[in-house]
């Protein structure tokens, strides 16, 4: 039975899973959510996600939700067959990758989300941009990337080798370049610039 991904087609969370599926060479069916009422039904809440959220991944009879949990599941189940290593089996190396996955969800993602929600989502939907929120997001990401600049010294990727941690940083980096005027946050830091260039290639 094919892997099915239920999600909002242009959501960064959906796209992160799509990148993981592609990296692992896995065929899948995307079931786009076009009406949010469909994920609030009793059946969906009982069988897919109790909070009525997406994305949700169905792999045969197995159902899992939450983006990073889905990505980890796919890696642990399929990376050996795909002959790629997104989370190393070695405990120490794998734990370092998990450390940087935590950086992404705890520091990088929240800072960029403030910017992108205002400058992409709000603009698209005719909602006024709250410049104070954008300013705070820029201040936050500057602090985050100052630390990343040190972490990336002498390395092409966060843990040295390309991993799920790097992959999960990719979507928001692409959106910053494609949809905002803030790519300088990456470009002015040589180590971060090199890393982002690697992710975007």
Automatic annotation (TrEMBL):
MF GO annotations: glutathione binding; glutathione transferase activity
All copies of domain GST N-terminal, residue ranges: 1-82
EC number: 2.5.1.18
PROSITE patterns per record: GST_CTER, GST_NTER
Recorded coiled-coil stretches: none
Domain GST C-terminal: 90-201
Enzymatic reactions: RX + glutathione = an S-substituted glutathione + a halide anion + H(+)
Keyword Transferase part of the UniProt annotation: yes
Keyword Transferase: yes
Any GO BP: glutathione metabolic process
Gene Ontology CC terms: cytoplasm
UniProt KW keywords: Transferase
Family, as annotated: Belongs to the GST superfamily.
The protein's name in its UniProt record: glutathione transferase
């Amino acid at each position: 039975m094919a892997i099915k991904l239920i999600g909002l087609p242009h959501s960064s969370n959906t796209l992160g899973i799509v990148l993981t599926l592609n990296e692992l060479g896995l065929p899948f069916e995307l079931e786009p959510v076009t009406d949010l009422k469909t994920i609030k039904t009793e059946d969906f809440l009982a069988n897919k996600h109790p909070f009525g959220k997406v994305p949700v991944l169905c792999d045969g009879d197995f159902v899992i939700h939450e983006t990073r949990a889905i990505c980890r599941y796919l890696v642990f189940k399929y990376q050996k067959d795909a002959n790629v290593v997104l989370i190393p089996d070695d405990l120490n190396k794998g734990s370092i990758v998990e450390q940087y996955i935590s950086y992404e969800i705890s520091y990088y993602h929240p800072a960029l989300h403030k910017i992108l929600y205002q400058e992409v989502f709000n603009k698209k939907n005719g909602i006024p941009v709250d410049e104070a929120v954008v300013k705070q997001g820029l201040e936050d990401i500057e602090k985050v990337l100052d630390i990343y600049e040190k972490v990336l010294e002498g390395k092409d990727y966060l843990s040295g080798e390309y991993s799920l941690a790097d992959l999960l940083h990719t979507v928001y980096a692409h959106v910053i370049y494609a949809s905002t005027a803030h790519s300088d946050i990456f470009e002015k830091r040589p180590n971060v610039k090199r890393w982002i260039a690697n992710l975007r290639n």
